[in-house]
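Expect chain and fold; see below:
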Amino acid sequence: QVQLVESGGGLVQPGGSLRLSCAASGSFFSIETMQWYRQAPGKEREWVASITSGGRTTYPDSVKGRFTISRDNTKNTVYLQMNSLKFEDTAVYYCKTSASWGRGTQVTVSS
């Protein structure tokens, strides 16, 4: 089973940037579609970004143009570059494969 470990969360001011990382164990990383989700307090978990094994990316309208997902198959790592952060981006961010979730990393946008 693939294990996922997120990192890079923290406290940032509105308009700032953060880069999240998700390191995956296992030898099948390169063929997996990787996704980022987030969950704010009191809200349902929502999809944030996806990247296929071929590098095709998709985003919901809420983050399109501000967030960028990428992957480095040589490092078994997927990234989420988050720019122009807003208060409403505050959440725990999770990395996901077809069968596994990470434990999440907290992102707090506050002045």
